[in-house]
């Protein structure tokens, strides 16, 4: 039996690193994404971006807004492609209800953190987040610098 080749980048298509810097992440959810054929082909080539993407709720459905999927020139010659269109997220009813109540009542925001492959399907990791204040960002930077400095000292003392 032939084994499937793993792609060199792993199963992750793209990450939203900016969201981890700008927001404190409270709760994470996994959602399926409704895509067209050319979008799947482009994502297989790694042509997706989640910078400035977020989730909105219309008619009790979740929609991914601001995600950019660059079309392939060869795959999308006879389609009218729209790289920044809204894409429907596939979630359970109770998950959607939980997200809607948190966003409306508690002042949370819902953002996309990552796109990745799972069993041949594209999944989107979304999260309930709260915006960080400037002093929170500074504290995180100090902690990262301190951890980096500790690692350097440990590696030089081990020699």
TrEMBL record:
One example GO MF annotation: RNA binding
Transmembrane segments: none
Keywords annotated in UniProt: Cytoplasm, RNA-binding
Localization terms from the record: Cytoplasm
Domain of life: Bacteria
A family per Pfam: SmpB
UniProt record, GO biological process: trans-translation; trans-translation-dependent protein tagging
Cellular component GO terms, alphabetical: cytosol
Keyword Nucleotide-binding: no
SUPFAM superfamilies: Small protein B (SmpB)
Residue numbers spanned by region Disordered: 136-159
Biased composition (Basic and acidic residues): 137-153
Family: Belongs to the SmpB family.
Record-linked NCBIfam families: PRK05422.1, smpB
Primary role: Required for rescue of stalled ribosomes mediated by trans-translation. Binds to transfer-messenger RNA (tmRNA), required for stable association of tmRNA with ribosomes. tmRNA and SmpB together mimic tRNA shape, replacing the anticodon stem-loop with SmpB. tmRNA is encoded by the ssrA gene; the 2 termini fold to resemble tRNA(Ala) and it encodes a 'tag peptide', a short internal open reading frame. During trans-translation Ala-aminoacylated tmRNA acts like a tRNA, entering the A-site of stalled ribosomes, displacing the stalled mRNA.
Name the UniProt record assigns to this protein: SsrA-binding protein
Organism: Marinobacterium halophilum
Phylogenetic classification of the source organism: Bacteria, Pseudomonadati, Pseudomonadota, Gammaproteobacteria, Oceanospirillales
Gene of this entry: smpB
